[in-house]
Design goal:
- The complex is a heterotrimer of chains A (284), B (279) and C (119).
- By secondary structure, chain A is mainly alpha-helical.
- Chain A has a domain of 93 residues.
- Chain A contains 16 helices and no strands.
- In chain A, helix 2 crosses helix 3, helix 3 packs antiparallel against helix 4 and helix 13 runs antiparallel to helix 15.
- The radius of gyration of chain A is 24 Å and the shape is globular.
- With 279 residues, chain B is mostly helical.
- Chain B has one domain.
- The longest helix of chain B has 32 residues.
- Chain C is built from six helices and no strands.
- The two termini of chain C are 45 Å apart.
- Chain C has a domain of 69 residues.
- Classes of the chains: A mainly alpha (284), B mainly alpha (279), C mainly alpha (119).
- Chains in contact: A-B, A-C, B-C.
- The interface between A and C is large, with 52 and 36 residues.
């Protein structure tokens, strides 16, 4: 039984969104009451199951858990927020909005409620407002990387790449050694045609994370693109791209070659179909 | 000759002294129990008196986070491209200069003295004072009480021998140069309790307790310095201007300038030619 | 098989370390006794006899070896190994901004298990 608790803890820590698995693991725990084996973490488990339940649309289960939590932590802002979440999931956004406004009125520094307001605007499809709200939130909490990440994705949804890149830069400033964010930054830059920065950031990804496949695909793509531009295209075409800071042709060729090699190596264990697709792509 | 010396020395180490069991029952245990009880009492009193933490003001937060942003930029500058860095530097420097993030923009010229009049800051300071008083008063009382009633007492005999250096620690308040260090005086027992009960408190009251008196002692000795204590009002305008100077002289070098070489070296495509350019 | 062998080795190593620790205590005690005795017979030369020094140093060496061999599995400390534990989904999930009025409730049949959670 404790193994499912351990699995739940793992999911919780990875902060991945896997509601179905969470519910499946948690149901026997709830039925048999063995959830209390979690010790001090039991309330975290309850919260986790609650979030999974509203994700899966099991409002009744969520409400039951909420009552348990309410009994233990009456007056807690964190539990209050969960009421708002239930209402959101059950399709009463008006109630939730009222609740969040109430929380903020009482304590204007309540981060969770401020974030929910942004999320609700997003849920209603009012992206422009969501962005505006989030920007004013980040004006205060400039070191909240989750907020910057969200803002970047909101901007990406609006095809505002330069702004998104700015947000990812902030995220990188806050967590410089996380290669996932470098990867995201590289991809945004590639999309914007800033090939020089994209190449370097892709290289950063494969430096931080050995044999990162997505990183090497990026390296290959960018290096070949730059080589093509520099060698075969007229100057006029190059103007659309930012290529100020690209390495020499020899280095580019070697990087491209290295990427090919690592990618072939990465797929050497895979099945034949995968391998041929990969090889075909590399040949192009 | 030599055998006589040995004999005399053994007699001095085995000082034939016996403690009245009444001392154990009426002095040793009471002191210990009272110290524990006072610790628990202090803990409860602190909980009672602290009350709710002062509500944070969103403008205060904004101020502090803005400064933090500058620090982060200065620290991790080399991970973003030069253009991105310059853009941020310019923005932050201007913002610091103009006091965009200041809580009271009007008070930009005012100095730190005026911060004392802010009622919230007053409250914070009072809170700190209260806590310190609560630490100092009972400890002083108990120490006085022990000194008054039990000075000159020997309380226990340690079951193991110790060097002469421990004499200061274990026999304070007793002026006998020849007594073996095994014997512990009452005042010393008080100090041993004072510093040694921390573990007991964290066992019975939980890790975060305020029963321990030693922290207040440390606080007391810091009082003279008075420097920038947490919770003390700070002059953010000055801090902002300092950060602005700090940022404006920073030399930016992108960490990825030589990344091609580093990656080639990492994957064994190129020998390590120069000592790697990273710091 | 290999595991039990390994844990057996570890227990032995821990035992050896403990033994070495006792030896070290013994060396310390001997040194003290020696000094007391030397002082009481008025000896001028107070350097420790070589056995005690040797015992102390040997015990130290054995203890270090025992402790190093006896510890549990060493974990990789590189940042890369640490990052391997996180997936890209986890790194880009923003829990506070998740929205809940989505299709989730229509995707799977509702299993009412609410009554059980109440107790």
């Amino acid at each position: 039984m404790s193994s499912s608790l351990a699995l739940l803890a793992e999911i919780r820590q990875s902060s991945e969104r896997r509601p179905f698995e969470v519910l499946k693991l948690a149901e026997p725990l709830l039925n048999k009451g063995t959830i209390s084996q979690a010790g001090d973490d039991v309330w975290l488990v309850y919260e986790q199951v609650f979030l999974a339940a509203i994700d899966e649309g099991q409002i009744e289960l969520a409400k039951a858990i909420l009552i348990t939590l309410q009994k233990r932590f009456s007056g807690s802002q964190r539990v209050k927020r969960l009421y708002g979440l239930v209402n959101e999931a059950a399709g009463h956004p008006g109630e939730s909005k009222k609740l969040y406004d109430e929380i903020i009125e009482k304590d204007e520094t309540n981060v969770l409620a401020s974030k929910r307001i942004v999320a609700m605007l997003k849920a209603q499809g009012r992206y422009a407002q969501a962005i505006k709200e989030l920007v004013s939130y980040l004006d205060v909490y400039a070191n909240d990387f989750e907020g910057w990440l969200e803002l970047a994705h909101l901007y990406l949804g609006q095809h505002m790449y330069a702004q998104a890149a700015f947000c990812i830069e902030e995220v990188i400033l806050l967590q410089p050694a996380n290669h996932y964010y470098h990867l995201c930054y590289a991809e945004i830059n590639y999309t914007m045609g800033r090939l020089d920065i994209a190449l370097k950031e892709y290289l950063r990804v494969v430096e931080l994370s050995t044999d990162n496949v997505r990183g090497f695909y990026g390296v290959k793509l960018t290096a070949d693109r730059i080589l093509d531009l520099v060698k075969n295209r007229p100057k006029k075409d190059q103007l659309h791209f930012s290529l100020d800071n690209v390495p020499q042709q020899g280095t580019l060729e070697r990087l491209s070659q290295l990427a090919t090699e690592r990618l072939v190596n990465a797929y050497s264990e895979a099945n034949a179909a995968c391998r041929t697709v990969n090889e075909q792509w590399l040949k192009e | 000759m030599s055998s006589g010396l040995v004999e005399s020395s053994t007699t001095t180490t085995d000082q034939a002294m016996f403690l009245d069991p009444a001392i154990r029952d009426w002095v040793l245990f009471p002191i210990t129990v009272i110290m524990v009880l006072v610790g628990v009492f202090r803990h409860q009193l602190t909980i009672l008196m602290t009350g709710e933490p002062p509500k944070a003001d969103i403008k205060d937060l904004r101020q502090a986070k803005a400064l933090m942003r500058g620090q982060v930029l200065a620290q991790n500058k080399s991970y973003i491209p030069a253009s991105a860095f310059v853009e941020r530097k310019k923005y932050l420097c201007d913002a610091y200069e103009n006091g965009t993030y200041l809580k009271n923009k009007a008070s930009k010229e005012q100095n730190a003295a005026n911060l004392m009049t802010d009622p919230k800051n007053m409250e914070v300071m009072m809170d700190g004072m209260k806590k310190q008083m609560m630490g100092i008063v009972p400890q002083t009382l108990i120490m006085g009480w022990i000194q008054f009633f039990f000075s000159g007492f020997i309380l226990i005999k340690l079951p193991f021998p110790l060097g002469v250096r421990f004499k200061q620690m274990l026999q304070s308040g007793i002026m006998t140069p020849n007594m073996d260090v095994k014997w512990v005086s009452s005042l010393s027992w008080y100090f041993i309790n004072l510093f040694g009960l921390r573990g007991v408190f964290s066992l019975i009251l939980g890790g975060e307790n305020s029963a321990d008196g030693t922290r207040d002692m440390a606080a007391m000795s810091n009082m003279g310095a008075m420097g920038q204590q947490p919770g003390q009002p700070q002059d953010y305008n000055k801090l902002f201007l300092g950060m602005k100077d700090n940022l404006s002289i920073i030399y930016h070098e992108w960490d990825l300038d030589s990344i091609e070489q580093r990656v080639l070296v990492k994957y064994g495509k190129q020998p390590r030619l120069f000592k790697s350019a990273r710091k | 098989m290999a595991v039990s062998n390994d844990s057996g080795l570890k227990t032995i190593a821990k035992g050896v370390a403990l033994l070495a620790f006792v030896c070290m205590l013994h060396a310390g005690y001997s040194a003290r006794e020696f000094l007391l005795y030397s002082k009481s017979i008025g000896r001028q030369d107070l350097t420790l006899p070589v056995e005690i020094v040797f015992e102390c140093l040997a015990a130290l060496a054995v203890m270090i070896a025992g402790v190093v061999l006896g510890v549990g599995e060493l974990k990789p400390i590189s940042y890369e190994a640490e990052m391997k534990r996180y997936s890209i989904d986890g790194m880009f999930s923003r829990p506070s901004f998740q929205i809940y009025n989505h299709r989730g409730r229509f995707l799977r049949p509702i299993q009412p298990s609410a009554s059980v959670a109440e107790k």
